[in-house]
Design a protein that fits this description.
The complex is a heterodimer of chains A (457) and B (363). Chain A is α/β, with parallel strands linked by helices. Chain A has helices at residues 138-147, 160-163, 188-195, 197-211, 225-234, 255-263, 283-295, 325-331, 372-375, 388-392, 399-407, 411-416, 427-431, 438-456; strands at residues 40-42, 48-52, 62-63, 70-71, 76-79, 88-89, 94-103, 109-117, 174-179, 215-221, 240-246, 278-282, 301-307, 315-320, 339-344, 351-352, 366-371. Helices cover 27% and strands 19% of the residues of chain A. Chain B is mainly alpha-helical. In chain B, 53% of the residues lie in helices and 1% in strands. Chain B has helices at 7-13, 19-22, 51-73, 75-96, 105-115, 123-137, 151-162, 202-209, 215-220, 232-244, 251-270, 277-282, 286-293, 304-324, 331-348, and strands spanning 170-171, 198-199. In chain B, strands 1-2 form a two-stranded antiparallel ribbon. The longest helix of chain B has 23 residues, at 51-73. Chain B starts with 6 loop residues before the first helix and ends in a 15-residue tail after the last helix. The chains are: A alpha/beta (457), B mainly alpha (363).
């Protein structure tokens, strides 16, 4: 059904049929049982939503409203500013309170539109045209996806329409749907695949139409057998689609690892998935795209796992974009007494939140509350060259060496050791017995290297 | 990773006017009391292994070997090991400020040094060796993780150079638990005062007399030699346990023993006067060296390919020194020589980065 394509053949890569895994990686306890069986529920509208203008990779959106304006749910309140940018829509009906600085989930302050939610509103969207996907050209689909403000919901929040428009010199052979969800604790993609199976396949159909590709592979880690079964049972028979069960290993959901697991191909260093003939899209984003063509509603809400041992009532929730962390925690019963750290995203790559007023944004895939025992600071020992980080690094770097260079501030040398290939997955820090904050050091080194290049330019 | 106490967030939760009040904190938020939010960099979870745990597990796996040394050579064996350990830990404590004692690496160095010495060695020499090993073999390079050579072997090499007679005075095993098997309590720099029965090690017998010791005696440890030479089975068991827990790289002992076995088998085929592979493996300090010394993470390569090269190099040098060298035993020098090669081996065996072609930059 799916032959190994021969677009890129790297010497040193075994020519093999699909292998449901990748080399190296780590095995953190996946801890998904807390919320894996909880059906998706809708959270009541909070009293206020805060919508940062920067919720996606690329240029922030430009506000279209001013304080005092009355908005309905789904109204565009900020326009995209360029190609790699998407508009932002009101996630609840109400009145624009102010536009100003507000804590952003990335730890900074950022410009945001605050909406006082109308207390007795039925939250009905305005009547709208629902585009019929079959009648649209790929370019029109792309435009509709951009207009709906859809971004990658896996965490990076890369605008979805950009991926739907690969440059002509990169022929795309198949669509790869990322249902790996390899981050511990998170279960939102899992629940989407189980509960919104039809919607996922509908989204796949639209994506394939827009990309003009004949094939699609959905990669799901084996620890979600119900999702694999549901997807296979509902798979459209008129399309060349396949559901691949993948080994349970972190970071299986990283684009490069997923492509390698499904095709055996390695994305060349510094290149993108499209250079090996594929487009990778997160399963949640696929469902969000499907929703645009089902109801005409833009991306105003997302599914979030609110979980972790320090959450009293872990759940999978449909949350209006811009809901504040404190409101979500309150709805989930609050924190336990030994709560110590709240993370947006998964525990491996997520960002710790200092402020309960930070809003959940489009790219927030989960809220994980960790206990004191988990988050306790550890004594850092010297590197003993145990080589665990080398065995863990999914892109075969030498984190031990890179760590020593980072400590010495030799960032230029780090670039020679392929720092750019590091995707900050955190596997090296996770296994380091000396608790050296390797990925934190690499993230700083990357920032320093970027600055150096900017200054040179 | 520093921890930032954000009790401010907690205060806001209790309704105390703070920055949150101006921002219009939601009124429905219940009172959860004080919550101190931590801020650390990702990843926020951590594998359970720690450097301390690795080091102390290695110490624990050495305890049976230490017990066996007492069984064969009596209390004086324990005195030697205890002195070496105290010397190593004490030096670490004095010169590096204390905190690094807890990681257990100095204790390993001390125990391993003790296990490479003969039972009757004067304790002041033992102490000197362990102090030298830690001070010059480890701390001079910058402490744990920075040293080029295995500190225990540096200590032993120092003793071998300084006291060539005392370090090759091998007492006869099983003289009784409290028998004085050597000039244990000699005062520094005094000439020996005690007459003891000594004997030759199997390797010396082989080298200088051309006689081989029965394999039984070698495996079960009824022969003369350093304290850790005689407990082959226990060393292998300890090594297997550590390898299973991923606390040592199995490639190194397997590579060393394999190389020694292959080379000596080949030599033995050419001329049966050369010792056979089993004799080579179970005699001398090869097992202790292959399982516990060469596998020291700090002084061995980090790459898998490098581990094989490193191990093969040690095996080759051991056979070379034992068969053609002037000394009966060569494990120590073999490991020290290959320790010096580790940076070059590591550089030559860097892993191929994902998405690149080996040898071509940028691919």
């Amino acid at each position: 059904m799916f032959k190994r394509p021969s677009l890129v053949r790297l010497p040193g890569v075994r020519g093999m049929a699909a292998r449901p895994g990748f080399r190296h990686g780590v095995h953190p306890p996946h801890s998904k049982e807390l919320s894996a069986a909880r059906s998706i529920r809708r959270m009541p509208f909070p009293a206020e939503v805060v919508l940062p203008l920067r919720q996606h990779t690329g240029k922030p959106a430009r506000p279209l409203v001013k304080p005092g304006d009355r908005v309905e749910r789904g109204d565009k309140i900020a326009a995209s500013d360029g190609f790699v940018s998407v508009p932002i829509h009101a996630s609840a009906a109400g009145v624009v309170k102010s536009i100003g600085w507000w804590p952003h989930p990335d730890g900074t302050m950022a410009e945001a539109i605050r909406i006082q939610v109308a207390r007795f509103s039925a939250q009905l969207p305005r009547p709208r045209m629902v585009p019929h996907w079959e009648g649209l050209t790929p370019a029109q689909v792309v435009a509709a996806v951009q207009e709906a403000g859809v971004v990658g919901l896996g965490g990076a929040a890369f605008p979805a329409h950009v991926k739907l428009q690969p440059p002509p010199d990169c022929p795309i052979e198949f669509l790869l749907v990322n249902g790996a969800e390899c981050e511990p604790y998170l279960t939102s993609d899992h629940r989407v695949m189980v509960e919104y199976t039809e919607r996922v396949w509908f989204g796949v159909r639209i994506m394939m139409h827009a990309l003009g590709v004949p094939r699609c592979v959905v990669g799901v880690e084996k620890n979600k057998p119900d999702a694999i079964e549901a997807l296979r049972a509902a798979a459209p028979t008129d399309l060349d689609v396949r559901v691949e069960a993948l080994t349970v290993k972190y970071p299986q959901g990283a684009e490069k690892m997923l492509i390698h697991a499904v095709t055996g191909r390695e994305v060349p260093s510094g290149k993108l998935p499209m250079h090996v003939g594929t487009v990778v899209q997160n399963v949640g984003s696929i469902a969000a795209i499907a929703e645009v063509f089902e109801t005409g509603m833009p991306l105003v809400e997302r599914i979030v796992s609110v979980t972790g041992p320090a959450i009293k009532d872990p759940q999978n929730l449909i949350v209006p974009v811009g809901t504040k962390l404190r409101d979500v925690l309150a709805y989930c019963g609050g924190l336990t007494d030994d709560a110590a750290e709240i993370v947006f995203g998964g525990p491996m790559m997520g960002i710790a939140q200092p402020d309960l007023d930070a809003p959940l944004i489009k790219g927030t895939s989960g809220v994980v509350a960790l206990t004191k025992a988990q988050a306790r600071p550890r004594t850092v020992h010297p590197c003993i060259q145990c080589a665990r980080c080398l065995d863990a690094c999914p892109v075969f770097l030498n984190p031990s060496k890179l760590g020593r260079l980072a400590q010495a501030g030799r960032y230029e040398e780090m670039a020679e050791h392929h720092l750019a290939d590091c995707m900050l997955c955190g596997s090296c820090s996770y296994v380091c017995p000396s608790s050296i904050p390797l990925s934190q050091m690499f993230s700083l080194a990357k920032a320093a290297e970027r600055r150096r290049k900017e200054q040179a330019a | 990773m520093s921890t930032v106490d954000r009790s401010v967030a907690g205060e806001r939760l209790r309704g105390i006017p703070g920055p949150g009040a101006e921002r219009g904190a939601s009124k429905r938020t219940p009172d959860w009391g004080r919550v101190a939010l931590q801020l650390t960099a990702s990843p926020h979870i951590k594998a359970p292994d720690s450097t301390e745990r690795i080091m102390w597990t290695v110490v624990a796996s050495l305890l049976p070997v230490v017990l066996a040394a007492g069984w064969y050579f009596g209390a004086s064996a324990w005195l030697v090991i205890a002195t070496a350990t105290l010397g190593a830990v004490g030096t670490e404590r004095l010169l590096s400020g204390g905190a690094s004692v807890r990681d257990g690496s100095a204790a390993i160095t001390g125990i391993l040094l003790g296990l490479t010495l003969p039972a009757g060695m004067p304790l002041w020499m033992v102490l000197l060796g362990s102090v030298f090993g830690i001070a010059f073999g480890k701390l001079l390079f910058g402490g744990l993780g920075q040293n080029v050579f295995n500190p225990a072997l540096v200590g032993r090499a120092f003793l071998q150079a300084a006291f060539p007679v005392a370090i090759t005075t091998w007492p006869v095993p099983r003289q009784g638990f409290l028998a004085q098997v050597g000039d244990t309590f000699a005062l520094p720099l005094m000439s020996p005062a005690v007459d003891v029965t000594t004997t030759a090690t199997p390797l010396a017998d082989m080298k200088f007399e051309g006689t081989a010791t029965a394999l039984n005696d070698l495996v079960l440890g009824g022969t003369a030699g350093s304290l850790g030479e005689t407990a082959g089975i226990l060393i292998l068991l300890g090594g297997a346990y550590l390898a299973l827990r991923n606390y040592l790289d199995w490639r190194i002992p397997v590579g060393i023993l394999g190389t020694v076995a292959l080379l000596s088998a080949a030599l033995n085929l050419v001329d049966p006067a050369f010792p056979d592979p089993l004799f080579m493996i179970f005699s001398g300090g090869l097992l202790l060296g292959a399982v516990y010394m060469a596998t020291d993470m700090v002084t061995s390569p980090v790459t898998r390919a490098g581990a094989w090269i490193f191990a093969a190099g040690i095996g080759f040098l051991v056979v070379l020194i034992r068969v053609w060298g002037g000394l009966p035993e060569g494990v120590m020098y073999a490991i020290l020589l290959m320790n010096a090669m580790v940076p070059f081996i590591d550089r030559a065996t860097q892993p191929r980065v994902f998405g690149t072609v080996r040898g071509k930059e940028g691919a």
